[in-house]
Every structure is written in structure tokens, then in C-alpha cells.
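Late entry, evening session. Most of the bench is empty. Finally got around to the prediction I had been postponing all week. Sequence below, unchanged from the version circulated by S.P.
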Amino acid sequence: MTQTASIGSNPTSVAPLDAASAARATERAALEKAAKGFEAIFTRQLLATMRNSSMGESIDGSSAVDQFREMSDANMADSLATGGSLGIAQMMLQQLDRR
């Protein structure tokens, strides 16, 4: 009975595990944020390249339209990355988990 009381009343035996798991959770959250950020940037570049490779010039080639398209593409890329639609961030995290 004294062993149970001494184990239960010793909070320092649990603290290092909690600190280590908290550090891992913080690191994992930072990795997820970085992976999603990479996916968003990659998607923006992909969309910009697709738009630039069009055949010929469009009728609406004003700078305002171009700026709106860039903002629209950036918003779409951020949404795709946040939602995990493409899965690039998830694949990166799986590779990092193997280390």
C-alpha cells in the first residue's frame, strides 16, 4: 500500500514524459504548418505556370485582370493546401515520420 501511495504521489516521474510528448506535439504542429505552406506555394507556382503557358494572348489582358487572377490563384492554392486536397503536405509528413 505504501508503494501505491508513493508512486501516485510522485509527480516528477510523469513530468518528463509529458514534457517530451508536448515537445513532440509542438514539433509536429510546426511540421504540419510548414508542409501545408510548402504545398500552397507549390500549387501557386503550378497554377501560375499553367496560366502562362496558354496559347496566344487573351482579350482581357489588362493588369487588373492579371492581378485578380493571381489573387484568385493564391486563394485557391491556400484552400487546396489547407483542405489537404492534393495530399502533398500529407506525403511530406509521412516521409518525415519515417526518420
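Two things to note before I forget:
The longest helix spans residues 15-52.
Confidence is low (pLDDT under 50) at residues 1-6.
Will write this up properly tomorrow.
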